[in-house]
Amino acid sequence: MSDLIKIAVDAMGGDGSPKKIIDGIILNHSFNKNNFFKIFGDKKIISPLLDGKISKEFYEIIHTEKKIESTDSPLEGAKRGKDTSMWLAIQSVKDKNADIVISAGNTGALLVVSKLNLKMIENIDKPALSALWPNKKGMSVVLDLGANIECSSKNLLDFSIMGASLYTSLYPKDKPNVALLNIGSEELKGNETIKETYQLLNDKKSGNYNFAGYIEGNHLMDGLVNVIVSDGFTGNVALKTAEGTANFITSELKNAMTGSFLGKVSSLLNISNLKKFKKRLDPRLYNGAIFIGLDSPVVKSHGGTDHVGFSNSLDVCHRIVKGNLIEKIKQNI
């Protein structure tokens, strides 16, 4: 089984854990038999959930009753010690016993514990939190989404290279277009840091991506750009705005289709299109933020997602390792 991709799973993080996590593993295994799961958590709870569902050659449970709470500050989470499920999962990647680690637990603690355990890739100053967003033509990688509030032009250049490497790891056949998120598309727009980054990217010739200049917030979903780069403050605001807008649209559409007799009849007539629309905006399909810049990949599943969303983030883990993300970043940097 040495050819299996080894995924270290913090089974105790996030809402409804560990059941949600284990159900996600079972679902993922039903369509992908190429993963081995190193599961960190309370064996007394986890074993009954797994027994008979997956062959024991595809998983191992590493027992610990300690976990980092969602209410902990990042420092409190780190102080809970080296025998928490999150710390042990990250430690297994550090010790090369796993290829990648995933947790649905406390985001701040995951970033801190990851940085305490894992080294930075050489010549990368700061790691970034990135995620996949849907667009009209497929998917985009967006980073940074909140790991770094303040960034230099060197940081944004690094994010561009890492984001392009992530995109080509996930979509090997495509050469991505990279753009900087800005308040305008003209060269003169934006602060000094973004202007400096523009010049650096414009001058840097790369065979791994095309530099497409600036992109404004209203064009994020157009599909002309595959990698969107910003500082963590701007990226996080953009992420929360996009999530809120998607929730608003689906909620209002549901109200319109179920609020009156005419709406109900209309929804029945359009049920196929409505199902496609709902699926396109389903956040579970895009679950799994990636903490990149460290010498091992760390994936953060949304704490509130269900087992379907967690299964999708396990699929992201598989594709990242199979696509040799870390090696791609090292080569491109």
Strand order of the largest sheet: 3-2-1-4-11-10-5-6-9-7-8
Order of helices and strands: EHEHEHHEHEEHEHEEHHHEEHH
What would the average pLDDT be, to the nearest integer? 86
Number of E-state strands? 11
How much is the radius of gyration in Å?
21 Å
The number of helical elements comes to 12
Largest sheet: 11 strands, mixed
- Report helical residue fraction: 40-55%
Inertia-based shape:
globular
Topology record:
Blueprint: E1 5-10, H1 19-31, E2 35-41, H2 43-50, E3 59-63, H3 74-79, H4 85-94, E4 100-103, H5 107-117, E5 128-134, E6 139-143, H6 153-170, E7 177-181, H7 192-203, E8 210-215, E9 227-229, H8 232-258, H9 261-269, H10 271-280, E10 289-292, E11 298-300, H11 307-322, H12 325-332
Parallel strand pairs: 1-2, 1-4, 2-3, 4-11, 6-9, 7-8, 7-9
Antiparallel strand pairs: 5-6, 5-10, 10-11
Can you characterise this structure?
The protein has 12 helices and 11 strands. The chain has 333 residues and is an alpha/beta fold. The chain has 2 domains: 1-123 and 293-333, Isopropylmalate Dehydrogenase, CATH 3.40.718.10; 125-289, Isopropylmalate Dehydrogenase, CATH 3.40.718. Strands 3-2-1-4-11-10-5-6-9-7-8 form an 11-stranded mixed sheet, sandwiched between helices. Helix 1 (19-31) links the parallel strand 1 (5-10) and strand 2 (35-41). Helix 4 runs parallel beside helix 5. The longest helix is centred in the C-terminal third of the chain and has 27 residues, at 232-258.
